[in-house]
Design goal:
Layout (H helix, E strand, L loop, with lengths): L15 H15 L3 H38 L4 H17 L2 H36 L2 H22 L7 H14 L1 H13 L1
Helix pairs in contact: 5-6
């Protein structure tokens, strides 16, 4: 038989003598003298008393511990705050956090540069568009329309800005107000 299979993996079944040995052990534990039994009960009572004393001491120490923490202002919230602060600091000093922070910073810088370039390109395109013949034609048509509106609304004044045209149109409509007030008085008579 292989030596490695000895012990736990014995292939031989238990013998009757092995079973008797197990039952003798159990019976021997139950058979004790009255003196031994009394001695064990005294030892058990002594251990129970020591355990009770230790529990009382532990309770007193826990109370003292809680009072000292309270006097120092170390409540559950302050402990939580300290733990979070410590964890945050540990995380910030970790290699992974530093790499991520550096990567995000670089990405932000590149994005900012891209938007700056994009804005410059759009500005340049608008400048090019304004100089184009089709935009100049559109601009001339708008100026012509503004001049026509100025002439019709405010008289023969030429030039001026779009805001001037709007304010002259507002003045022209406010001059129509007396006519409106005459209509109001005629409506009142009815």
């Amino acid at each position: 038989m292989d030596d490695r299979r000895q012990g736990f993996l014995d292939s031989e079944p238990l013998k009757e003598s092995d079973e008797d040995l197990g039952s003798e052990l159990n019976l021997n534990n139950c058979i004790m003298t009255e003196e031994e039994r009394e001695e064990f009960q005294q030892e058990l009572a002594k251990l129970e008393e020591e355990i009770s004393t230790l529990r009382q001491v532990l309770t007193a120490k826990e109370k003292q511990y809680a009072e000292l923490k309270h006097k120092l202002g170390l409540g559950p919230l302050s402990e939580l705050k300290n733990n979070l602060s410590r964890s945050w600091h540990d995380m910030q000093s970790s290699t992974a956090y530093k790499k991520t922070s550096d990567t995000l910073s670089t990405a932000g810088q590149k994005t900012s540069a891209a938007f700056t370039t994009f804005g410059s390109a759009i500005t340049r395109k608008f400048g090019d568009m304004r100089n184009s013949p089709s935009f100049k034609s559109f601009e001339e048509k708008v100026e012509s329309t503004v001049s026509t509106i100025k002439t019709k609304v405010g008289g023969t004044e030429a030039g001026g800005s779009f805001e001037d045209v709007l304010s002259s149109a507002a003045n022209a409509s406010s001059q129509d107000t007396p006519t409106n007030s005459m209509m109001d008085s005629s409506e009142r008579q009815c």
